[in-house]
Write a structure and sequence with these properties.
By secondary structure, this protein is α+β, with helices and mostly antiparallel strands. 48% of the residues lie in helices and 12% in strands. The protein contains 4 helices and 2 strands. α1 crosses α2.
């Protein structure tokens, strides 16, 4: 994958979008002459593997992700929880509580 090991490492940050990284994975299949593959992602590479399978199911039929924490399905949609979490656990309220603890 670009930027790792002995691979090319473009200087421009816009050359590292998820579409570029998925394209790199497709390029590997093309170079190997493989029509399809199971893609395996480790740590940060897991998101590339997931996106590769989502955007190119014609090339990646299955995904394995390693060293990624399991998060069971929540009882509510994550997007419905975000506004509540932001107000309840905002950085300013956390910072205020730390300051108060230091004073006491």
């Amino acid at each position: 994958m670009r930027g790792y090991g002995n691979s090319d490492a473009p200087q421009a940050i816009d050359q590292y979008t998820i579409l570029h990284l998925v394209g790199d994975m497709v390029g590997i299949l093309d170079a190997l002459g493989a029509a399809t593959a199971v893609i395996v992602g480790h740590d940060w590479g897991a998101s590339v593997a997931w996106q590769a399978a989502l955007t190119r199911p014609d090339r990646f039929g299955a995904v394995a992700s390693l060293s990624v924490p399991f998060r069971p399905r929540a009882k509510a949609l994550p997007t419905s929880l975000m506004p509540a979490a932001r107000t309840r656990n905002s950085i300013s309220s956390i910072s205020r509580s730390r300051v108060l603890r230091r004073r006491n």
